[in-house]
Amino acid sequence: MPANTIHMAESSDKRFTDVVGVDEAKAELEEIVLYLKDPRRFTRLGGKLPRGILLTGPPGTGKTLLARAIAGEAGVPFFYTSGSEFEEMFVGVGAKRVRDLFREAKQRSPCIIFIDEIDAIGGSRTQRDQQSMKMTLNQLLVEMDGFEQNNGVIVIAATNFPEGLDRALVRPGRFDRRVSVPLPDINGRLQILELYSSKTKLDKCVDLNVVARGTPGMSGADLANLINQAALKASLDGANAVTMDTIEWAKDKILMGAELKNAVISEETAKMTAYHEGGHALVALKTDGADPIHKATIMPRGHSLGMVMQLPEGDQKSLSRKQMLARLDVFMGGRVAEELIFGADNITSGASSDIYQATSLARNMVTQYGMSSKVGIMFHDLSTNAVGGQTKSKIDDEVRLLLEQSYERATALLTAHRHDLETIAAALMEHETLSGAEIKAILSGKGLTNRNKPKPGVLQRAAAARSVQQ
Ligand SMILES: Nc1ncnc2c1ncn2[C@@H]1O[C@H](COP(=O)(O)OP(=O)(O)OP(=O)(O)O)[C@@H](O)[C@H]1O
Ligand SMILES: [Zn+2]
Fold first, then answer.
1. AAA+ ATPase domain: which residues (predicted)?
2. Pairing of strands 153-159, 111-116
3. How close is the Cα of 422 to the center of ligand 2, in Å?
4. CATH fold match for the domains 3-180 and 186-263
5. What residues contact 370, with CB distance under 8 A and at least 6 apart?
6. What is the pLDDT of residue 22?
7. CA distances from 12 to 69, 75, 112, 178 (A)
8. What is the position in ligand 1's atom list of the atom closest to the CA of 116?
9. 63 Cα to the center of ligand 1, angstroms
């Protein structure tokens, strides 16, 4: 096949309603649709557009689908390519392909060029032929630099590894708008499950809220697959509807097939994480000098099962001793909560990063900030041999003391407010993510007011209506 006929424009029948649970990304992309519908009018009215848009996020979260939906909404041609495709057939033709692609796209404008896995040409690793890749990448940069604002071609690229991209690609005037397409939260998962089960007959025992709660870490593609597998199994079994058991079966099947096994967490782990993060949050809330909580979450991300994010107030170039002690206490809060609720035998390794951070802070207090009377106001450089054995052990004693006292303060605090800890943990298990304000509202008994809780979808409402009737 001659290289210049390889790029065929598709017409997309996808719409924004086909992509759910990623509302923020959709909102950010809406103006692109307006632009594509009438590029000249848009720019005449003063609209400024990014040249290229980078969709970032884990596999299967709907990046390709979103790009197709933009084309569908705007009614413009969609050129699909993937980074690996440029090089895979004949090494060295990548640059020519890029040139051909853009030429064709300009002829069909307004239109969308979508480049999946852009890291395959724009990344630094895994390339067989560095020289050829560079030429491909350079050609892409040349094409993008040659764009005029109103020529009607929008380039959208997707990657799972934005960090690995060549700097030149993300410079202003190139892929200068980044839109994140994250794994869906509980509400998003519910919407995706509803979308894909709308054409499937569900038994009334199926509560998609429960399924959504039990599938953290799954992407949209996983959830679509979950419903599909369950429907297949039900029809093979000759059943006339998908039951909760069938869904459990499908979930196991998917988890076994994927590395997701670690990503999707068990109910038990979720509970442990909820108390752990709840412990951090409650100590932060009740300790004078601690930074305010931005949010707490038990959504797994990377290697972490959850986290509490704090927002330091103002611009903190230096911290007081009181603020440092508060930080130590907040670090301790996670482990202390685990121990308090589940017993000393059941504490987990989940606190290892907390312990590491607390220890480094305590050590800095002793060796760099002159905050230990026993060690004195003196800088000790532990990375050299300049610190004698006796001093070293004195330093260790002081660090240990700081950590132990902090552990005791956190234990006293969480023991006294155990009920609040349970309230936060329960709310985290229900909602996965809570803002600082929401945590305060829950503790003051106000509950969550204007939060878009997982709304009972059509199917649940129907199921609820059925169960009331019976
Ligand atoms: N948010 C979503 N809403 C509806 N369907 C989704 C969503 N996310 C994923 N899907 C389903 O999963 C399929 C795969 O998603 P898609 O190819 O768009 O993911 P991607 O983010 O481009 O993944 P990759 O990084 O692996 O290319 C879609 O065709 C769709 O069926
Ligand atoms: Zn922790």
1. 49-185
2. parallel
3. 16
4. no
5. 376, 377, 378, 379
6. 92
7. 7, 8, 11, 23
8. 27
9. 6
Res 459: pLDDT: 33
Query: Tell me, what's the pLDDT at 213?
Result: 85
Residues 6 or more apart whose Cβ sits within 8 Å of residue 46: none
Measured CA to CA, the distance from residue 269 to residue 306 in angstroms comes to 11
| Backbone φ, ψ for residue 9 (5° rounding) | -75, 135
For position 469, what pLDDT does the model report?
29
| Cα(224) to centroid(ligand 1), Å | 9
Ligand 1, CB cutoff 6 Å, lining residues: 19-22, 59-65, 116, 158, 160, 192, 195, 220-221, 224
The confidence score (pLDDT) of residue 223 equals: 95
Q: How far is CA 412 from CA 83, 196, 283, 406, 421, in A?
A: 56, 49, 10, 10, 13
Report the alpha-carbon distance of residue 302 to residue 298 in Å, rounded.
Answer: 12
| DSSP summary character for residue 266 | P
Using CB atoms within 10 Å of the CB of residue 312, give its burial: 0 to 12 exposed, 13 to 18 middle, 19+ buried: exposed
Give the span between the Cα atoms of 28 and 36, in whole angstroms: 14
Residue with the smallest CA separation from ligand 1 atom 25 is 59
Is 10 an active-site residue?
no
Q: What is the pLDDT of residue 246?
A: 92
Q: Where are the domains of the chain?
A: 3-180, 186-263, 267-431
Domain 186-263 has CATH 1.10.760.10: no
Q: Which amino acid is located at 200 in the chain? A: T
The pick from 13, 54, 55, 64 for probing ligand 1's pocket by mutation, whose C-beta has the most ligand atoms within 8 angstroms, reads: 64
Closest CA to 279 of 173, 186, 376, 407: 407
d(Cα 409, Cα 431) in Å, to the nearest integer?
A: 29
> Quick one: pLDDT at residue 189?
94
User: What is the pLDDT, as a whole number, of residue 307?
Assistant: 81
Annotated catalytic residue: which of 277, 339, 398, 432? Answer: 277
Task: Pick the ligand that lies closest to the CA of residue 118.
Answer: 1
Q: Which helix (H) or strand (E) holds 376?
A: none
Q: Can you read off the two tokens belonging to residue 437?
A: 């304000």
CA of 221 to the centre of ligand 1 (A): 5
Nearest CA to ligand 1 atom 23: 60
Tokens of 443: 């503790």
CATH class of 267-431: mainly alpha
Take atom 24 of ligand 1 and give the residue whose Cα is closest: 59
In the predicted model, residues of the chain with pLDDT beneath 50 are: 1-5, 125-128, 259-262, 452-470
**What is the DSSP secondary structure assignment for residue 171, as one 8-state letter?**
S
CA dihedral 213, 263, 302, 70 (to 10 degrees): -60
Q: What is the CATH number of domain 3-180?
A: 3.40.50.300
